[in-house]
Amino acid sequence: MRKIAVEIKTFSNVSQITDFYAALGQYFCYKVALTERHPDRILYLAVPKLVYDSFFTEALIQKVLQAYPVKLLVYNLENKEIQLWIDEHYRQSIRQFLEKYVDTWREKDVETQLIIDSDRDHYLLLRVGWEGEKRINYSIFHFDIKDGKIWVQENNTDIELDKDLEEMGISKKEIVVGFHYPKMREYSDYATA
Fold this sequence. Notes:
Structural class: alpha/beta
CATH superfamily of the largest domain: XisI-like
Strand order of the largest sheet: 5-6-7-8-9
Helix content: 25-40%
């Protein structure tokens, strides 16, 4: 079971940028405190959908969130329901991981392709081309982000990717090994779903 902590912000001041500065500062202070006291908890910043749609989608704010990844929850202020989970940190970490390995496999007629669909949260590193008369087309790595977790759908290497991801602040409990049979997942250190 995933344990989370949520810092809820309403962005009710006249200046949304001032609210953003305050929210970001508090988020990172809480994140440090949680790491010390409750390292198993994942911290989210909750913002109203109206604020997310009008403010968080601006180019400058997106650049700040790319530079300083924040896990966001977008909620409906009226019915107090979560509308969207946004794990920008996961997206950046997967991208960074895949970019680290994109140049690892080089051959004359076989290309390594990095495929990123950040709208649907699918991330692949593929090998495509020809080896003599043999067609090459397979995934080296395939990641998805689903239900607030990173799903490893394919790893056709001997690379222990959990170590790379842990260095980026992602624990094994945030990773689901999707290519393992569901009933076998409970016997690993990783998340089950």
